[in-house]
Amino acid sequence: MKVDGRRVARVEKELQHVIAQYLISGFKEPLPGLVTVASVRMPGDLRTARVYVSVLGEPESLERVLEILQERAFEIQRYIGAELKMRYCPKLTFERDHTTEQVLKVEKF
C-alpha cells in the first residue's frame, strides 16, 4: 500500500486542531499550567497517533498533565471519532514536546 504524505500531514494537522478544541471545551477540570498541543505524528496507516504536548508553568506540572491526558485518552478518542469522519479512530499516546524547551533555551543566549 502506497502512503500519501500529504494526506498524513493533513490528518495530523486536523487531529491537532480537534484535540486542542477538546482540551479547551471538553475537559471538565482545568489542567495545571498552560497546555499546548505542539504536534501530532502518525504512521501511514493512521491507526495510532503520538501527541506531543508542552506545558508552560511549573516543570512538575508536565508529568501530571501527561498522566491526566493518558488516563482520559479514551474520552478524547471518542470525541475525535465524533468530529472526524475516519475509517479508524487513532489510538492516542501523549508525550513530552522537547522542541519548545530547545527554542526557549536558544532564545536565552
Map the helices and strands.
Elements: H1 5-25, E1 34-41, E2 48-56, H2 59-71, H3 73-83, E3 91-96, H4 99-108
Parallel strand pairs: 2-3
Antiparallel strand pairs: 1-2
Helix pairs in contact: 1-3
Describe what this molecule looks like in 3D.
By secondary structure, this protein is of the alpha+beta class. It has helices spanning 5-25, 59-71, 73-83, 99-108; strands at residues 34-41, 48-56, 91-96. The protein has a three-stranded mixed sheet with strand order 1-2-3. Strand 1 and strand 2 (48-56) form a beta hairpin. It is globular and about 45 Å long. The N and C termini lie far apart (47 Å). The model has no long low-confidence stretch (mean pLDDT 87).
What is the domain tally?
A: 1
CATH topology: GMP Synthetase, Chain A, domain 3
Can you count the helices?
4
Write down how many β-strands occur, each being a DSSP E stretch of 2 or more residues.
Answer: 3
- Briefly note the structural class of the backbone: alpha+beta
Produce a short descriptive summary:
This protein has 109 residues and is of the alpha+beta class.
Could you list some keywords that capture this structure?
21% strand; 4 helices; GMP Synthetase, Chain A, domain 3; 3 strands; 109 residues; alpha+beta
